[in-house]
Design brief:
The complex is a heterodimer of chains A (363) and B (361). By secondary structure, chain A is mainly α. Chain A has 13 helices and no strands. Chain A has a domain of 246 residues. In chain A, helix 1 crosses helix 3. The chains are: A mainly alpha (363), B alpha+beta (361). The interface between A and B is medium-sized, with 29 and 31 residues.
Chain lengths: 363, 361
């Protein structure tokens, strides 16, 4: 059971424009406008806008819920209660959002204003752009390109670029080191991340999220044959998301707040927000590639696909939070050592395993 | 990339107090460093010259927020030496016990502080949770949580409250289980080990030459502990041994402190067994000190603390000199930091147990 958002909203828009607004315009006398509104191009465009709006809203809501989830789970892991604002702490995010919204927008004197302001735009824009390619179910997505896996991961690796120029433009020693660390980090984790995905792509024979999930529905969840790849993927994804074992660019102990030190007010708020939006996307990719997406046991068919998908996403994000609760931060040279000496060979072995399985036709 | 100086402090998450570590970096490698202190200078040594001897006890409590009792203790020892007083037997035992409880509390504060330094908040909250119980014990003993004003010249202020022994033993039993939890979280975590092992190597010879004392010295394999080498109070009657490690790196200093917490638990248990059940806890002291000098020397949680007091026959000291263990350890920091990365600074400095109150005085 799944919700086909395209069919639903397409029907809604058709009804609204053709059956309601069109006749009204015709009654007034705007016959040209009436037929223009009824043309397939306009209907399509309005539908796409509505779908994008809904998927964006759902994505942002999930990201906000991730912040709440992190606060509460981390609190429990640390033997405290976590946030208490509102019922079970649900209002904390809105209080925080309001707080950063009313802060003064400061641009440091020594900063390069153009790049300084462009960096958050790049980071936030890129983070939200990734919602586009993530399908929640067969019918709940914005775009479904043939190579959606490749596209999503390609967009993902644009973020460190924003971090680098943001750290440079702030004209502060801490932010500069933070930005350079982001650049050093990307060469450590990006290759193992992509290589660990290749195993899945070889088995499924497709670069499309839909096809990969369909393959897992008909065969087996990828986490079973590709367990090595899953481990590599989760670790590299932690680095990609700049979460605790690998949050070098914003190491708060030695670099104050890392590359974000000079960003204040709503810029900071949106950057933090986009971090969790990326966290949601990262957990979604792990779910789609390794945990069967919206696949479910057959006796639980009555639960909608989208809820299954979100439940798995929250579980994966819970794993990220658990790692954060247990781990300290590694060092720049250590993340390079981990990436190149440990994760890369493991990812390569994973590809061999995938090739062997594919050749033997086991999975 | 050219070399540049970075100020880490005076307002910086790494500092644990108000001081400034200036580091010269080449990329991320530290080529030179310079600790700048004095932001917290209160003129303590001058100020006490205008106070009578008993009035200085609460002042010396405020030398360090983490280990107030040991500071008032070393002050009282110095004045007792000046006045030639003999402390009653029971007071000695109570002082030694309070020292060890304070040592645990202070090491827990240190353990809490290294968590955020290394990027993990969990260990911070765990350690603070257990420290709370030791603060509760001190509250039962002397009514205050941090600045106790408990030690007196010639004894201690009051005897232990009823059920004291039961409460302490209960806390220690619970706490011993918790130390295992810390070891599970830190020692068995490869990333924690990666951040600590082989870092800031300090050979025993260098440590002695730089004047480093306390756990940092014992982490370099030098067997020196004032409690054993120059026993004060009742430490020669207690069943205990010194904790040392030979590696001389950050991990060794970490291990020494964790072992010391275990050892303190053992010492407190032994003290409770051997402590006389009754007896005087304080002797009457003269108002004016004689002309002369006195010293107090003891093993603070951070190292060897030392006070030198000169009396001029009045009720106020002519001069009171404090040797702060961390002041000396901090001056060894440039030696330890050189050649390591910026990311190692919190790890190295945090592992020395920073306390600026006693350093700047």
């Amino acid at each position: 059971m799944y919700i086909d958002i395209w069919q639903f909203l397409g029907g809604l828009v058709h009804w609204l424009l053709v059956d309601i607004i069109g006749p009204i315009l015709g009654w007034i006398g705007f016959h040209g406008l009436e037929s223009w509104l009824g043309s397939p191009g306009v209907l399509n465009f309005v539908t796409i806008l509505l779908v994008a709006l809904i998927v964006f809203t759902v994505g942002m809501l999930v990201a906000i819920t991730h912040i709440w989830q992190e606060r509460k789970t981390l609190g429990r892991l640390m033997d405290r209660r976590g946030t208490q604002v509102g019922p079970i702490g649900l209002f904390q995010n809105f209080a925080d959002g309001l707080k950063v919204l009313v802060k003064e927008a400061i641009i440091p004197d020594a900063a390069d204003p153009l790049v300084y302001n462009a960096a958050p735009v790049i980071i936030i824009g890129v983070s939200l752009f990734m919602f586009v390619t993530i399908p929640y179910s067969q019918g709940f997505y914005v775009a479904n390109p043939q190579m959606s896996v490749l596209l999503t991961l390609a967009i993902f690796s644009l973020v460190p670029f924003g971090v680098l120029i943001g750290g440079w433009a702030s004209n502060n020693k801490y932010t500069l080191i933070g930005g350079l660390r982001a650049a050093a980090q990307i060469i450590a984790y990006e290759i193992p991340l992509l290589l660990s995905v290749i195993g899945v792509i070889i088995l499924a024979g497709s670069l499309n999220f839909m096809d990969i999930v369909a393959y897992q529905q008909s065969h087996v969840w990828m986490v079973v044959p590709m367990i090595l790849g899953f481990v590599v993927f989760i670790i590299s994804m932690n680095a990609e998301l700049e979460r605790v074992p690998f949050d070098l660019p914003e190491a708060e102990a030695e670099l104050v707040e890392g590359w974000m030190t000079e960003f204040g007010g709503m810029k900071f708020g949106l950057i933090m927000m986009s971090e969790y939006a990326r966290g949601f996307v990262g957990a979604s990719i792990a779910t789609l590639l390794f945990l069967g997406g919206w696949d479910m046991p057959s006796f639980l068919q009555f639960i909608p696909d989208e809820l299954w998908f979100l439940a798995k996403v929250f579980a994966v994000f819970g794993l990220f939070i658990w790692i954060r609760g247990a781990m300290p931060r590694v060092r720049t040279d250590q993340i390079l050592a981990i990436g190149w000496k440990r994760l890369l060979p493991l990812a390569a072995i994973n590809i061999f395993i995938a090739i062997i399985f594919k050749t033997l036709g086991w999975f | 990339m050219t070399e540049m100086w970075i100020n880490m402090g005076p307002q910086h998450p790494m500092t644990h107090g108000l001081w400034n570590l200036r580091i010269k970096v080449d990329g991320e490698t530290i080529t030179d460093s310079e600790p700048v202190i004095g932001y917290l200078h209160r003129g303590w040594e001058k100020e006490v010259e205008n106070r009578t001897y008993p009035q200085i006890i609460p002042m010396s409590d405020r030398l360090c927020y983490g280990s107030s009792f040991t500071w008032s203790h070393v002050y009282c020892m110095a004045v007792e030496d000046l006045m030639g007083l003999e402390v009653p037997e029971k007071a000695k035992w109570i002082r030694a016990m309070s020292d060890e409880l304070q040592r645990i509390g202070n090491h827990l504060m240190w353990l809490a502080a290294i968590g955020p330094d290394l990027g993990n908040l969990t260990i911070f909250l765990y350690a603070i949770r257990e420290r709370e119980m030791f603060l509760d014990l001190f509250q039962a003993l002397c009514g205050a949580r941090m600045t106790y004003n408990y030690c007196r010249i010639g004894g201690v202020r009051n005897d232990a409250p009823p059920n004291w022994e039961r409460d302490v033993l209960r806390t220690l039993d619970y706490f011993e289980k918790r130390i295992n939890e810390y070891e599970d979280l830190v020692d068995r975590n490869a990333v924690f080990r990666m951040r600590m092992e082989g870092l800031a190597y300090l050979s025993g010879k260098d440590a002695v030459n730089l004047g480093v004392t306390g756990p940092s010295l014992r982490g370099s394999g030098v067997k020196f502990d004032v409690r054993e080498n120059d026993p004060y109070e009742v430490y020669d009657e207690i069943d205990w041994h010194m904790c040392t490690r030979d590696e001389g790196d950050v991990y060794a200093r970490y291990r020494v402190r964790i072992d010391e917490m275990r050892m303190s638990v053992q010492i407190v248990r032994d003290i409770l067994k051997k402590m006389p059940k009754s007896g005087p806890i304080r002797v009457k002291t003269p108002r004016n000190a004689p002309v002369g000098t006195g010293i107090g020397r003891m093993e603070d949680p951070r190292g060897e603390s030392f006070m030198y007091v000169i009396g001029d026959g009045s009720d106020k000291p002519y001069r009171l000199k404090v040797r702060s263990p961390f002041f000396v350890t901090l001056s060894a920091a440039p030696h330890m930091l050189k050649g390591y990365k910026v990311a190692d600074v919190p790890s190295i400095m945090g592992m020395l147990d920073v306390c600026m109150g006693e350093t700047d005085r």
